[in-house]
Amino acid sequence: MEGQKTTVRSIADLARMAGVSVSTVSRALTGKGTLNQSTRDRIRALADQYDFKLNVAAQNLRLGRTGAIAVLLPLGHERGQHLSDPFFSAMLGYLADMLADRGYDLLLSRVLPSGEDWLENFVRSGRTDGVIVIGQSDQGAVLNRTAAGYRPMVVWGAFDATNAYTSVGTDNAAGGVLAAQHLLSRGRRHLVWFGNPEAPEFAARQAGFLSALPDEVRRNTSIVPIPLTPDPAFEAASAYFAAGNRPDGAFAASDIVAMNVAAAAAEHGISVPRDLSLIGFDDILLARIATPPLTTVRQDIEAGARALVDLLMRRIAGEETQSVQFPPTLVERESA
């Protein structure tokens, strides 16, 4: 009837009025996903004009989705590690942005595993549409068991062809080789590895490092188990130097470990790089501003986050996926 006020009862009504798709209206009203700003503003203005409010919970219920992706950090091997770790912070920042661009919220959980069914219990809770696990820790068996019956999951970590899950990560063994070759090129022959080999990623870095050393050098290379958190790493490295050990080259499992090794060395009168050439792993921001700036094996955290999200979206859609392994690069700075 002429003069009757138009009402908007659903997102479909608003989409028809705006001349766009339902998904475009959803992105405009939730602020998620990529959308031209003028289109977003026009749709929001139209929604305001007709006093339409999107019921996100109801929309997700109709679609059979939660609208959230879980990012889990299992810390079975290193229970003292925190989300404030610079590597985690960088990875989580990229993941949060990339998931938001796909229209998902991020549900974050730092997990201290207390049994063999923690991941299966989380999956059964139905709280999220998929899971990204950052680091395998010592939870390989748990990950494989869950992956056998749960498709929307991807894992950041070391590649193993026998794993049931899709993984994304750096070729850690190749990174170890780069570190060994660089120290040898500097004439360093009395070497040491600082790291925690309980996690597959760090075990691969150690194995690659040792594999690239000549037999005589490898036989005289020290292996120093060391925590990955700052204060315990410093204490372990300090104890090593206090025992009279004087290597001339060192490779650390991470940049955080390397910087604490440098601090412990200085406490015992060992200069980096004059007396000790030191290499880290990751290339976090702090590596560039350390004293001295840290030579490190770089893994592309942004590309890794993008691959994790892309592969997870494909698995949610029912596609088959293959694991991805990125080549590392050596970033040469003053420490080695």
TrEMBL record:
PROSITE patterns: HTH_LACI_1, HTH_LACI_2. InterPro entries: HTH_LacI, LacI/GalR-like_sensor, Lambda_DNA-bd_dom_sf, Peripla_BP_I. Residues 9-63 form the HTH lacI-type domain. GO terms for molecular function: DNA binding. Pfam families: LacI (PF00356), Peripla_BP_3 (PF13377). Keywords: DNA-binding, Transcription, Transcription regulation. It comes from the Bacteria. PANTHER family: ALANINE RACEMASE (PTHR30146:SF120), LACI-RELATED TRANSCRIPTIONAL REPRESSOR (PTHR30146). This is LacI family DNA-binding transcriptional regulator. It comes from Novosphingobium cyanobacteriorum.
